């Protein structure tokens, strides 16, 4: 029995290619296998037109998803994967998914976070009817993202077939490593406010004014205000709430740090997976990851920093 014969075994492979023919040589047989096995083939890529032409009549039973609209903020993409799989894909059969992220205009923090997302897919789709083939065009792939591929995918696909990745890293270990990457210091003047005194109305007014100062729309400003409030509430529940909030601009985005020197957060996948009735803890931080374009958390014995990235438009 192969991995794809099993009903509840995740198969997560990475395809590194340098030409369209290499992309098609891997993806077309993969999708046809899904069709032959009564699965649900899905393609999320900017090469959907090419795939349609090669599949011919079989393309009518394959779902094609716009990649530019799908691959926005990493945490929102993970939520979309889970929602679509549960509501649309798995009910129709084993999922055969070709996914090719879009790398244009990604900042270094975003690229690091996409590596974390790929690693977390091994947790999110564990013991599910999922065959996932992640495609990477080496001609446009950022170097840092290329370094992550073998560590986040259990199997690699090449011209000679599929093989186990010798570099694959347990998602919990990979996640912890990402959390030790230092955050870049502010590069522009910082607006700051102390959290001491427990003045939520004053904090909301400060964040709203800072967002307006940096040109955020009303919708984005409200999202940031709500996010900061949720982060402060979470830190306070963990025993802190006596730090500060820093706001500045970088790479065309507003950056907001919530700093608490006295609190270490339990950041084991904090806020990445949607809350359930049986696991409501972390619902606030999950909402923060949906509202913001990127959330970075660094926590340890010296305290915690939760960094929120908010662009002028939602990604």
Automatic annotation (TrEMBL):
Positions of the Histidine kinase/HSP90-like ATPase domain: 203-308
Record-annotated MEDS domain positions: 12-154
InterPro entries assigned: HATPase_C_sf, HATPase_dom, MEDS_domain, RsbA-like_anti_sig
UniProt xrefs under Gene3D superfamilies: Histidine kinase-like ATPase, C-terminal domain
NCBIfam families associated with the record: RsbA_anti_sig
Name of the molecule in the record: Anti-sigma factor RsbA family regulatory protein
Organism name: Actinoallomurus liliacearum
Lineage summary: Bacteria, Bacillati, Actinomycetota, Actinomycetes, Streptosporangiales
